[in-house]
Amino acid sequence: MLAIRKHLKDVRDCKKCAKTQLSDLASSSAAGDDMVIETLGNSEGMSASSLSAAQVESESDNDVLGTELDQFGDIPATEPTVRPPGTVTIEEVEDIDLESACQWHYQRDFPDNKASVPLHHGKTTFQHICNEQILKQEEVLGPFQDDKEWELAKWRIKNVGHSAAEEFLKLPMISLCAQPQYKTKQQLYDCINDLPQGEGTNWKCYEFEYEGDIPDDKDPSDTKMKKENLEMWFRDPLKIIRELIGNPVFKDVMAYAPIQLFTDPEGQNQVFNEMWTGEWWWKIQEWLPPGVTIAPLILSSDKTLLSHFCGDKTAWPVYLTIGNIAKDTHCQLSSHATILLGYLPIPKFDCYTKKLCSIMKYRLFHHCMTIMMKSIADARHTGVEMLCADALVHLVYPIFAVYITDYPEQCLVSSCMENRCPICKVRPDYRGSHDSESFDKCDVVEPLSYLKDHAAGKDVNTMYGGNVNDTLKAYRLRPVYPPFWASLPHSDIFVVFTPDLLHQLHKGVFKDHLVKWCTVIIGAVEVDKAFQSMPSHPGLRHFKNGISHVSQWTGTEHKEMEKVFLPLVAAHTCNEVILATSMTLSLLRDALDRFHDHKNIFIQLEAQTQDHFNIPKIHSMEHYEDLIRLFGSADGYNTEAPEWLHINYAKDAYRATNRKDYMQQMTWWLQCQEAVDHFTKYLAWARQMVCSSLIPSTAVIKIVEHDPAPPDESLAVIDSSSQLPVPIPASTSSTQRYHVSNVPPPDLRNVEAAVIVSPQGYHATEFIPALQTFLHTHGVDKLFPPHSFDQFSLWRQVDFLLPDIPKVSRRHRKNIIHALPSILDQCHKVTSHQVSDQDACLDGALICTGEVNPFTNGTSLQGMHVGRVHAIFTLPKHYLSPMHASLKYPLVYVEWFTPFRSPDSIMGFYHISKSTRQGGCPYAEIIEADWLVRNCYLNPQTPGDTVHFFVNHYIDEHLFCTLRLGYRGCIP
User: Fold this and answer.
1) Which of 251, 636, 663, 796 shows the greatest Cβ crowding within 10 Å of its Cβ?
2) Which InterPro entries match (predicted)?
3) Which residues contact 436 (CB under 8 A, 6 or more apart)?
């Protein structure tokens, strides 16, 4: 078998060598007629409508910028973060099956190019700043003398509080050594205020005075009522949209028109990913005048505490982003693609009786949001001309599309009572049912008419023949008129609430219900033991004390539990309770159907104490399929994002104040932070312009293959690397996919083989026989046979870079295989006792052996085998002669598991066991590191089992797509 594997390895090496020669040949003859090339240039990753925009852009020239780039000569040139035009790239696809990795190939643009037609060319914000500096003969760094002074000011604004600023500047190291031009904090703030700022940074304060229905105790005449004064700080949302859609930083992650993606040429299997691939954008575009551009507004809000340990200081931030920006970007905090719109007031309203207090809080919220969104309502008829990131002016219609929040605030936003669904008309006592006929969607016109009649004081509703209050109760509406969304055009409040992954799934359905029910059935002690017995794994939290003692849960802990929960409870629960999941909408609906078919098992086993499932978070899953079709995948609308935004926009801002009139100070602090961030991006753009001016402006080309014309003429064949609007980076595939440090760690050098073999060390019990076999196969054993006193240098880990797959991520994912021993002292002696291989963190790995397995032939696991990595090492020099220098290092000692069989029909897990030879010794082997593919997580089939395992495909997205969905492009 070793000879066969060596032959397969030689074939792979020859293949890589041939492809390298082919790449060199293609590079030298890229201009010839023997290849089909596709000129991408500036249009790489753009839609059809964006191509016309790029053509308009190419026809104009920046008259000032093009002649005065030498003004930027004092900026140190840095390597551009985006591959500049003018380079020839040939993407290798040797290790990725593009046919299965690219899950969509066909694109349909909006008919007749009637979406997002640019009006004329313009200059971006950064171009205006650059031109203004040139015309005024100002320094590129603005008020700062050099990079060092600017970096010091930026660090001070980001890290030193307001009260300590003066003290910091008076430090001798700063005042005498650094000697910045700003000597006081006021001078520093004056410099920051002189920086160019975004259009949407200016804050407004709106003051309220509410008079209640409780007499004022301080008024002896009892004629005056108690009052409460409130204030709301906010910014103009239209200016924020103008800033976001025109930010040059987002040029490559911005879309302006809807598209439809399909996996088949007939256009039957549609892909829903970004917002512009959903049905909502396409439908709204059909309603609007031809050629306009839609800016879908994504709002989110959530109350948060400002003080950690004491006090009742709270804030209610409202955030805004737009659906034109790719979800990976607007969900990334460091991108600053989601901007704080304002702070809503949080009233006490002790001036009202208990009966009115609740409804007045509802009315205050909608009144504040109406004021905040006024500029959006004013632009509803004609749209607004905006300069976009592509340097073209578009007629933009800002439309309220999505509101990201938890269930209580969903009821608040939709003006409905807490015992009803904010999306459909289902009765409260029917929420646990699975009857789709009971889930009729609410019509936004009907409840608005009832609310209007109530506000007008009408007594009778002809439909019900009774009091209007009875009508509101029947529809479970709060008497709030007008709600803020009534004046927003093309907005349907009953479809804006996207799936809440954090509160509804991770914390709600999973933690609050599923884990609770399974714990009742299995027992808390057994569940804790099961979690304690879980092996360690890179990036996975190990609940060493179980889960019953965890007092504070976050979304991170919930997701870590989900990765191991199904195989953990598999040995304890009956088959009827097991629920498989899928990433497709059809299987999502099927999984929900099967859950409702078997949910009564929880009642029968007394895990669910009530005799029904009228739970809002479970009912919300009924709408997931429709909402994903409307707005794209749910990961772009997670309420976890506002939770993280609170840190910067609320908690850090509050800590920078003196706790008095803190709201005004918070807005001022945020304005300084945003000014620094905005100028940082401008300097990065300016540096990139300097680099681009030094590169010849030749076309970027890429070798492509002819694809057959699709049957549907409206569908165009697209390559996954040009998926809109984010270009996928060039492949990083090379002859060596893994990485280890150049030199082994000092404490793992010259480790004796006896320590590697020891069960208390690396637990590599068959290391010496396996090494002898390896040396014999490669003709090395004639020199020095291995002995227990031989010394080896080892590594703790080997790193891999998994390929990008459109289904999961556009960024490479680092993957690590550990071979961590017990703690060794300087003499390489074991200092801990009775340590098992789990405690030593010896990872399982997928290994490419090339062996034929009828169960995996033709699948994503073809030629794959599972082994546990015990040691990553290199041979001593005295083992080798110059003729053996071709051996690749490092070497890996693995202990094999049994080959893959068909996954079980209930859970979909592959079952494997430790492979042994006669006499019970583990079947072990030494292989070269390039046989390794990636790590894999092995769950014991029962707590404490060290022989039989599940291959857990829920540990990360790439492994799930490989094992569960069968995609062949997820692993090299």
Assistant:
1) 636
2) Plavaka
3) 622
